[in-house]
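Handout for the seminar on molecular recognition.
Each group receives one record of this type.
Step one: identify the two inputs.
Step two: read the structure output and locate the region that could contact heme C.
Step three: write two sentences on what you found, then compare them with the reference statements printed after the record.
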Amino acid sequence: MPGKSLLLLGLLVATACRQAMEDQPRYEPFEASTFFGDGRSARPLIPGTVARGHLDDAAPPADAPPFTVTLQVLDRGQERYDIFCSPCHDRVGTGDGMVVRRGYTRPPSLHLDRLREAPAGHFFEVMTKGFGAMPSYAVQVPQRDRWAIAAYIRALQRSQHAALADVPADTRGTLEREGGE
Ligand code: HEC
């Protein structure tokens, strides 16, 4: 008899213990919190955070897509960028998209010197693997489109830093007459 009640007691203690483990005072993923000013229990990632299993710097990122960038590729890149990236990065890449205005982590401007100097392959990698607070787009955006977007970002960067010298000499005159410079 004493053996039996001991067993019962043991069972009780065991289940009670399990219950206590399950009801720990902890936050579920994405649960709201009154503790932090932004109302979220999850803390923002530190800029430059690399997702687990993504620290892979074996090969340096490529300078350009592995295919010729035509106007068609750029058009495709623009279309895909506007759909998948502009919600956060905005259409010109300054990082003021609608999602950001509603509280999402603000991405850096794509026109920073650091990103203007980065190889196109860096953009491809960011889309493929995600980057800090930014999720991966490998599933939504197929590889060729990711390159098209990378090429489009390059064009976008150039468009914001164009100098008269970038315009072919034979059309420069028209611009000057129109009061450009
Ligand atoms: C949901 C919002 C969101 C979307 C959509 C988004 N990004 Fe981002 N992006 C971010 C944030 C936030 C960061 C900054 C991440 C950090 O530093 O932790 C970032 C950073 C970047 C960077 C800079 C990386 C660096 O070296 O600092 C690039 C390039 C980039 N994103 C490209 C893209 C492209 C291309 C797309 C579309 C396929 C895209 N992003 C879609 C939020 C977004």
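Reference statements: The helical segments are 2-22, 71-84, 86-89, 98-101, 113-117, 120-129, 143-160, 169-177. Residues 2-22 form the longest helix (21 residues).
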